[in-house]
Amino acid sequence: MPDRQPEELRLPEAPRQPEAPRAAPRTGLPRRIAAAALALVLAVTTASPQPAVAQGQPKLPIVRDAETEALLKDYMTPILRAAGLAKQNVEVTLINDRSFNAFVADGRRIFVFLGTLVEAKTPNEVIGVLAHETGHIAGGHLARMRQQLAAAQTVSIVAFLLSLGAVAAGAAAGSARDTNLGGALGGIMTGPQEMIRRSLLSYQRGEEQAADRAAISYLHATHQSPKGMLETFRRLSDQSLFISRGVDPYMLSHPLPRERISQLEELVAKSPYRDTRDPAELQLRHDLMRAKIIGYFDRSDTVARRYPPRDTSLPARYARAISAYRFKQVREAIAQIDGLIAAQPRNPYFYELKGQALLESARPAEAIAPLRRAVALAPNANLIRIMLGQALVATGDKAHAEEAIRELSRALTRETLAADGYRQLAIAYGRKGDIANADLASAQAAFAGGEFKTARHLAARAKTRFANGSPGWLKADDIENYKPPKLDGKS
């Protein structure tokens, strides 16, 4: 699990705001107040796969790992089938944050925080979270929320203008009493907002409960227990006690813990699969995943406390081996990894770890064999295939150029925004003397990295080396003529 920053997610432009009325209020109120009223709009943002944004744009701390992604795909596949979404290409994206959280940002991507995976002790707990988020996708909740927000925007503006008229009328009456326009305006600004916010949050709570019910139905259809989902909400309830007491229920964006737990307890009690346990093999994979995250991201002393030497389980050995490699104890790490391979000789991720440790220790020639074995055992793990290509290129041996091109090209047909992969491919093509494809791969690397000016320059140069209308020429032409979305209204 290299801690790499992959392609970022571009936030879409904000919805267009309605134009302000042309006539100024008769009270002579500053225009900034009218402008503020028109800004009383709630908005949601969706994330969509794009090339990395240009420098200065915010980044999502996304982390990629073949093993974790494969496991989550195995968790998701039955759920998606039960939800009727098997053909929708729903993906899980990992966020490098140790909070317990997950969310849906569009109709095909579920974002899961690493903290969720570490805190969840069983596959069933994670599957429950994924089932809940799938319920949001299947229910079209995000699209309907946008409709609610659009309606709220209109209501907010109308309410403000009506209230503004009331204040103007009061001021025109010119009574002898002191007229507190500031206080009245404060009420105007907060009144419609509060009403609309409460309405939206009430709507959102209903959607959350609907997603809970949908999740239970998916678990039932796949013969899985809903207990993990219930345990998750109980744990979150315990963590939120201090912030929930005394809080207006309408202020919460999710149902109160007791409400959701009560509903889930009823649904769990009715499930014929409530006592079904996760298969032992799946539990082991889950434990290995948790150990991997801890080994990669925690301090060595934290890893040692969580997985002391007396713990000889496979996950504990995995975490210690990763920690040793991370903290430059390469000889010890390789010895521990060899022990893992001896215990599970068909586990591709143990070979991946060995190859990565050797590659990052400036021993690329030695990394090739374990990475080849990892690719053979997990042919769809394109991230490992890219690492193999990197090792082949890093040897500096022209004899490896053809294999590197083959492996990298195959991986990049699926990992289309892997800038590092394109950079390695460019080197391999250059080493072979294929300058046209080297320029094209360099352009693709720059494009994936959000360096659009550089990408256009390299693509234009590549076009001069390809036959007009050839596949390479067309790819370069697409890059040269790409116009990135405008996020701030500027050209």
TrEMBL record:
Keywords: Hydrolase, Metal-binding, Metalloprotease, Protease, Zinc. One of its GO terms (molecular function) is metal ion binding. Residues 69-267 form the Peptidase M48 domain. InterPro entries: Mito/Outer_Membr_Metalloprot (IPR051156), Peptidase_M48 (IPR001915), TPR-like_helical_dom_sf (IPR011990). Residues 1-28 are annotated as: Disordered. Pfam families: Peptidase_M48. Residues 1-13 have a biased composition (Basic and acidic residues). GO terms for cellular component: membrane. Its cofactor is Zn(2+). One of its GO terms (biological process) is proteolysis involved in protein catabolic process. This is M48 family metallopeptidase.
